[in-house]
């Protein structure tokens, strides 16, 4: 399986070279993220792809992660603050159009989702949308590895600063998790030759027959 080879190749890069990723590769990674499964299928997060150096410098202030500004691209996975009935309505109507269904065919799904989310607290909404964003992060890591693009998933950032710089709360969003993309600086990244540390598979998983 090629995927296992790619997963062994990848690591969380600490130091990137100056080399930029082609737009074609970035677009493929974005498409893979958009194709990621989400609970209820309603994609409750949005993705920002940031290259602007000034914006990235500001985003990296106070963080130990130089990769926020020193990499080719920065991805920000931004979860919804709230799952509104309007959003569910619009999304389910889009599903009907994409599947060539008559308007109203998916009313049961729509009403079930609206009922379900209407009793959730804002805190529950945030946790739920963050979980979905992290699934997107997983896809992004795999997609990047398949393209031999390096990546670093990161939780070490200041969500308040991201909110301020990117104007997330006025969009009903918050920064859930971020990821840099680029190419490893093989001569200067101390992790490049460090073997992967993982549990023996037998210790990691339990088979129940
Ligand atoms: C959700 C998440 C958050 C992480 N946050 C950071 C981070 O802020 N900075 C960093 O350098 N690495 C970060 N990492 C990378 C992990 O430390 C790394 O994936 C782990 O040590 C396993 O190593 P490997 O990915 O190189 O195989 C993060 C990884 C994940 C999945």
TrEMBL record:
Transmembrane segments: none
Stretches assigned to the Nitroreductase domain: 7-183
Record CDD domains: NfsB-like (cd02149)
Superkingdom, taxonomy of origin: Bacteria
Cited Pfam families: Nitroreductase
Cofactor requirement: FMN
InterPro entries noted in UniProt: NfsB-like, Nitroreductase, Nitroreductase-like
Sorted UniProt keywords: Flavoprotein, FMN, NADP, Oxidoreductase
SUPFAM superfamilies (alphabetical): FMN-dependent nitroreductase-like
Family from the record: Belongs to the nitroreductase family.
PANTHER family, per database record: NAD(P)H NITROREDUCTASE YDGI-RELATED, NITROREDUCTASE
Protein name from the UniProt record: Nitroreductase family protein
UniProt organism field: Chryseobacterium luquanense
